[in-house]
Amino acid sequence: MPIETLSTFKAHGGTQGVYRHASETTSTDMVFSAYVPPHEEGAKLPVLWYLSGLTCTHANVTEKGEFRAACAEQGVILIAPDTSPRGQDVADDDGYDFGQGAGFYVDATRDPWAGHFRMRSYIEQDLPALIAAEFPMADLDRQSITGHSMGGHGALTIGLRNPGRFRSISAFSPIVAPSQCPWGDKALGGYLGDDRAAWREYDACALIEDGARVSELLVDQGDGDQFLTEQLKPELLAEACKAAGIDLTLRMQPGYDHSYYFISTFLPDHVAWHAARLKG
Amino acid sequence: MPIETLSTFKAHGGTQGVYRHASETTSTDMVFSAYVPPHEEGAKLPVLWYLSGLTCTHANVTEKGEFRAACAEQGVILIAPDTSPRGQDVADDDGYDFGQGAGFYVDATRDPWAGHFRMRSYIEQDLPALIAAEFPMADLDRQSITGHSMGGHGALTIGLRNPGRFRSISAFSPIVAPSQCPWGDKALGGYLGDDRAAWREYDACALIEDGARVSELLVDQGDGDQFLTEQLKPELLAEACKAAGIDLTLRMQPGYDHSYYFISTFLPDHVAWHAARLKG
C-alpha cells in the first residue's frame, strides 16, 4: 500500500497534506487529505475522521472547513476521505446524487456498482490501515468521526456499527434515515437492490431501532437548510435516540443553511467536543 | 449606484454576502464580498479592507481566508473587492500577471487599459462611497486595510497615500517595491508607460522614500514563499521603514509559502491587530 504525496502546506503550525494511494478495496486510486497539527517528536495524536457530502471530494472541507486552528489547539489529526471511487473505468450516473461523488458509504452489492463502490470497507478498514502504516504519529486507539449530509449519514452509521472504535460521533445536517428520503431511496436501492432489509445497516435510525447503542451523539442542523424537511429529517433521529436512551444533543442553528459557511462556523466546536472525549 | 445581492450566507453569527454594482469608475460591473458580523441594531462597526493578489477575485479569501470567526469576535466588517475590471469588452493579456485579475491597484494611463483599469480610484473612492450608502452599519470613520501579494502592495500603497483614512495597515507577502521586480516592471510599465517617475506613487518603498509616513506597519511573510527573493523582497521595505522611522513589524514565518494556507493561519491575528487600533 504505497502512498503518494500530492501536496503539503504548512498551516496553523502543522501540515495540511493531500495524498493518493491504490486502494485494494475500491480497486481504484483514492485521494484523501490529512491535517497533522504541530506536535512534539514521538507524540501520538488522536484522529478525527470527516466524511463529506454529495458532490464533494476531500478538497471542500480542506479548503473551506476552518478546522485547522481548532485541530492545532487541540492536537487532533483530521482526515478527509473522498466520497466515492472515481475514474473512467468506474461506473457513474448522470445524477449528482448517485455514482461518482455519491458513494453513500456503502458496500454496493448490485452491478455495475459492486466492483468499485465499497466505501464502507474503505473507511472502516482500508484507509485506517493505511493511516496506521503511513502516519506514525496517528494514535488509532483514539478515533472519533464526524461528517456532513451524506457524510453525516456515513459518520452516524459507521460510528453506530463500530462503537468500540470511536470515542465519539457527531454530524452536520446528516441524512439520518436514508430509507425514508429520496436521496437514500435512490442510492440504497441502486447500490443494494430492492430488499429493504439490506438497507438497515446503512440507516442510522434503523441501526438504533435494531439495537445499535452509543452513549451520546452531537448533531448540528441549520433550520434554514433547503434539504431539512424532505431529505434530512433530524426529528427521526431524535425519536430513535429517545426510544433507545441515547443522549442526543441536536442543535437547531437558526438561519444557517446546508453550506460550508454553516459547517465552518461549528466545525471548530465539534473538534473541541471530540477532543474532550479523545483525551478523556 | 444600485447594488445587487448575488448571495448571502449566515456564518459565524453574521452575514457573508457577495454583491455586484455598476461602477462609474471602471465603467464595468464590479463584484465584491462583505462579511458583516453579528451586531446590535443601530450599531456602527469598523471596516477592514482586504485586497487580493494576482489571479484572485473576492472569492479566494471569502472561501479560504478563515477570517469570519475573528471578525465576529472583534465586531469588524471585512470587505474583499475584485482585483480588476472584467468582461468581454475589457482589455486583457495572456499572462496571469497582467490585465484582468491583475489590476495592480493603479489608475492606468496607457491604452488599451486607461478606460477601465482604474482600481486605485475604485478602491479609494468608488467602493467606499457605495459601502457608506448601502451598509448603514459600516463606520467609515474607522477603516483599516490589508491584502496579499499584489493586494499587499495595494494595501501598503493605498494606505501610505491616505494615512488619514486608515487607522492601521498590514500586509501578507506584499510586493513592497514593484519598481524593482518583474511583476511590477511588467504591470507598471504596461499600465503607466516607461516614465518611472510616474510609478513611484504605486511603490510602497518609493512612497516612503518620497516622504509618506505612517506610525507603524505589520507584515507577515513566509520564508518558504517561492516568490520571496525575486518578487517580494521584504528587506527593501525594512530598509525604507528604518530610514523613515516607521515602526515595521516584519514577521518572517518559518516554513510558510504564498498560499491561503499561510494567509488563513495569520489573518485572524491581523483582524485582532487592526481591531485593537480601530477601537482604540
TrEMBL record, chains A, B:
Protein name as annotated: S-formylglutathione hydrolase
Phylogenetic lineage: Bacteria, Pseudomonadati, Pseudomonadota, Alphaproteobacteria, Sphingomonadales
Origin: domain of life: Bacteria
Reaction(s) catalysed (UniProt annotation): S-formylglutathione + H2O = formate + glutathione + H(+)
Keywords: Hydrolase, Serine esterase
Record bears the keyword Hydrolase: yes
Keyword flag Nuclease: no
A Pfam family recorded for this sequence: Esterase
GO function terms (MF aspect): S-formylglutathione hydrolase activity
Source organism per UniProt: Sphingomonas rustica
Known function: Serine hydrolase involved in the detoxification of formaldehyde.
SUPFAM superfamilies: alpha/beta-Hydrolases
Protein encoded by which gene: fghA
Entry EC number(s): 3.1.2.12
UniProt-listed InterPro entries: AB_hydrolase_fold, Esterase-like, S-formylglutathione_hydrol
Family: Belongs to the esterase D family.
